[in-house]
Amino acid sequence: VTEAISSLTTIMNANGAQVEETSRYINVLAAGSQKGAKEVDFLAAAFEKIGPVGATAGLSIEQQTAALELLGEKGFNSAETAGTSFRNILLEMQKDERNLTNGKLDLNKAFTNYAGITEDATELTEIFGKENVAQAQALLINRYRFEELTLAITNTNTAQEQAIQQMDNATTQT
């Protein structure tokens, strides 16, 4: 329990979240772990590397979680690498004014803007750097999976549903 609380605190602090948002964050992380490839401990370690960059770029916790889960699905199993690369990708995307809406990063715009170069490793390397090119390519090529994951983990009650299921299981086993 202590580890889970620490993970939640890390993620909320990185996003500048208020205590009132705790339930939302718990549900997003639970849904992300259920719908995606990685568990909360992976997400917490990745969020440590992203720091406040995702939130200050204007991304929701749902979008950030979906992107990390997508990277996990695509075989980027190191939370540190996934988080660092995602942070670097966000920073590079924000440099291109075509990717901004009202001064904040619009991932859908960015995905559209880079759609024509997803197979061009040279161009992707020029934009995102050689250490981030594979992760950028995974996100860009799988933008529809990103959208699907984002929708699947938005406005859920997954944590409460899981708790009820566990209580029901415990009751039927006694």
Describe the structure.
The protein has 174 residues and is an all-alpha fold. It has eleven helices and two strands. It has helices spanning 2-14, 22-35, 40-50, 53-56, 61-73, 79-95, 107-113, 121-128, 133-141, 143-152, 158-173, and strands spanning 100-101, 104-105. It has a two-stranded antiparallel sheet. Strand 1 (100-101) and strand 2 form a beta hairpin. The chain starts with a helix and ends with a helix. The model has no long low-confidence stretch (mean pLDDT 91).
Relevant terms:
174 residues, mainly alpha, 2 strands
| Unreliable spans | none
Largest sheet: 2 strands, antiparallel
Tally of separate helices: 11
> What value does the Rg take, in angstroms?
17 Å
- N-to-C series of helices and strands: HHHHHHEEHHHHH
* Spatial strand arrangement across the major sheet: 1-2
Number of strands: 2
**What structural class results from the helix and strand content?**
mainly alpha
- Distance between the terminal alpha carbons, to the nearest Å? 23 Å
- Average pLDDT metric: 91
- From the spread of the alpha carbons, the general shape counts as elongated
How much helical structure, as a percent, in the residues? over 70%
Q: How large a portion of the residues is in β-strands, by DSSP E?
A: under 5%
